[in-house]
Records
---
Amino acid sequence: MSAGQPDPNNIPRHIAIIMDGNGRWAKLRDKARIYGHHAGVEAVRKVVEACTELGVEYLTLYAFSTENWKRPEEEVNALMELLVRTIRRETPELDKNNVHIGMIGDGHSLPPACIAELEEAKKMTADNTGLNLILALSYSGRWEITHAVQQIAKDLVNGNIKPEEITEQTIADKLNTANMPEPELLIRTSGEYRLSNFLLWQTAYTEYYFTETLWPDFDKEALFNAIIDYQNRERRFGKTTEQIQVK
């Protein structure tokens, strides 16, 4: 069944994706897990192209969580090498398509080669004004919130803020995503129904979309289906249907 076309007047500004299922995709083909990760890169390319076409402003991809460091060393090393090669290979094309590359997460924990490639990619695409492609690397929501609280605690100790002056905005301003809109749509592939420590603060009012599709099989049509599903929902933010219908 092919997807229809999303309403161009109701495209989410910010889409976040938990790219899950690479390992299972490879296992179904009697291949090593890294084979699935390589296939997942092609899915990223398709989704980035589709988001650019639709005019999505931000696309945040959960590429490597803080918990992923617990995986076998061989797999972690292979993932880091794949990340370096992918950034090096894809950045010129992304730059050509006016895509701006950014990152959230604990960059200091990444291998030096990975940090160097990311910095070069960010520098090359710094002036681009199209899609903001945000890679969540060595990232977790709890880590991010903990880091924000630590920064606020320092401000308290230094007398820059009083406890009663701390608001939700104070916390939001200390997050990695401080200069980004909160996601309207979060997609998780592979049939899992959890956030896995991703954007815990930012997704308080995000619409979730879960699909059985494994990430390497996720394409433009699958993205369109997710966006159309989002467009058919009523976003009330705690209000009643009658309240949001009042012009």
Note: The first strand starts at residue 14 and ends at 18.
---
Amino acid sequence: MTIREEITEIVVPNYEDEIVKPMAGKNHARIQSRLIAELLRYEDKFDVLPELDLELPGRARPDLCIYPNLSYDWWKEEHKVTQAPIVTIEILSYSQGIEDLLSKARDIYFTANVQSAWFVVPGLNIIHITTPNGQTATFQQNEKLVDPVTGIEVELREVFR
């Protein structure tokens, strides 16, 4: 195999393996980047990773994953991550239904031991958190979100400004 064939094999994903997600828009990207900025205050304890392909009991690509600090091998890339994050964050797109995201949390994330799932609803400026044991909380635009599992706090006025 030539080097070009090897690189193509690595870089070009198999179409059937791709996870189909709604196209992210400007509002989605803005919220995602602001959440990352807020969450980076916790980088001494957690890694915040966007758009990670998870290979759990099902396949998913949350908008953000939060892990306890991970170790990295910069010589080897991991394209399909099998370790479940402790928190997943999904930003609702206009073409998605909240029920789709809730069933993804129940059927994929929580069966893989994700401990907290956040659902961001841009049109309402809220973030809803749910845990595998059924604990829920909803935080509005001017409130401070507190994750019951990690203790992470996020000022939502910074996310939705």
Note: The chain has one domain: 31-159.
---
Amino acid sequence: MSVKRGERRLFEGLDLLVQAGEAVALTGANGSGKTSLLRAIAGLLRPESGAVAFHGPDGAPLDPDEARAAATHLVGHQDGLKSSRTAGEELQFQAAWTGAGPDGVAAAIAALALKPLLELEVRRLSSGQRRRLAFGRLIASPRPLWLLDEPMAPLDAQRRTQMSELMQAHLKGGGLIVAAVHDPLPFKARSLEIGA
């Protein structure tokens, strides 16, 4: 696969296979194409050449649009949260948008220790708190493929440990993670340098 942004080719000849239970850490310099690769997998950016294919547990090919809609979560570098809502309202919106019910919302609140934040406006949250709120959709409506852009960047040490545990549990359950990172993930992950 190759990906261009504007007139600039970010990378070419990329061949990546990610299997259930595996994490891939995308590394490389700023501007090398890590985020663009996540966006291409999510269907938000069309590769210049090549394609992104999805397969079910039995190895059968899946329709890419259906697979993206039902089986992927993207948490980008920008959290995509509406600042005028309370954290509780935003979590409810995100959960409903991704098909979660009240049980999923409750699971996200418990897993990410969000209860003290729920009455606060999103604009009043720190960057680490915003990141935890954005991660809520990962827990509220479980999907196999997590596409994460700098997932640990704004988190303090305690929350990095917490998120690491959640990510490892996701992998143990057969999930997949592709994460753009500058710092290594705090658990075993295959590293792929983009733009090398």
Note: DSSP finds six helices and nine strands in the chain.
